[in-house]
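Researcher: We're teaching a course module on how sequence relates to structure. For the next exercise, students receive a sequence and then see the predicted structure as tokens, so they can try to spot secondary structure elements on their own. Here is the exercise chain.
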Amino acid sequence: MPKKKYNPAAPSEAYDRLDYNALRNSQIPATLAQTESMRFDSDEDASVFFARELDYIKKETYDVLYPEFTAVNLFPFSSEVDPGAQTITYYGYEKVGFAKIIHNYATDLPRTDIKGKPATAKVYGIGDSFGYSIEEMRASRYAGKSLDVRKGESARYAIDRKINQIAWAGDKETGLMGVLSEDNNVPIFTLPLNAGGTSTKWVDKTPEEILKDIAAMQAYTATLTKSVERPDTLAIPTDAYLYIANTPRSDSSDKSILTWILENSARLKNIVEAPELNADSGITPYSEGNTPQGVGFMFSKDPRKFTIENPLPFFQHPIQPKGLEFEIPCEAKTAGALIYYPLSMLIIPGI
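Model: And here is the predicted structure for the students to work with:
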């Protein structure tokens, strides 16, 4: 019985033409086709087979999500800037002016406006790669198994991890800004000590003290902005989140501190755990002396307030033959956090 030929026109057997051309122009498919155990009729069959394998791996890699990267799932992301851009200029705004009661035919209407201070963010590339050797191709074909998708997932993971770190804390070497960067003009709120005067951490505070802290944070932003900015999301370290999620509001209550806050706060709509804010995460730039601090971050989840700008989301290039293996270069581009309204945020060290 003749072996089945691969049909490039069949939708179920589609493959990336660029990958196919790269394979055909190398010597690897011919080498594989000459291996008796490979069961290929020709080097063209081998090229089509592995082009389809790589197409499947790329699709799987694009689809994979990593929920542990909080910024990727929590912050507004944007890719509206062209990938060819080298810099992005944006403005940090402040509303100014007032309105007043007027009489008929009034001509002295007060003028309102916005003050905008320009800032420029550079766009930087992030890259890595993954690949497969001719021996791995032989083994996958011989065993009747697909090439290991985890290699592509690992490349995606590494790039997403770097973008997540930049979104939170920026990158000092390149000057990329993150929401916690020390020079991003976001206000910093100083937490009061607990009743014993020993700690600002929520795990060392009573429910009443925590509720007072949240009220004070909201009042601080309201005072700074005349209640124009109303942050709706609070991200906190793991220990603080578990504490308020599992500690009763009071001895007579069956609700946790977390549940009570979300049910009764007029402005705060969501409180989330962010491991990146843990004292030992290596991401937060805040410390008490030489001791790293856990950090809270309260913000308005609104792309009009800030975005994490990625002109080029994760992208996989066509395969490139290198000796007895194939390499798939991967890249992304980011400009970090573009913060249009810094007063819509609040950084809370020591939480």
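Model: If you want an answer key for the exercise: The radius of gyration is 27 Å. The chain is about 30% helix and 25% strand.
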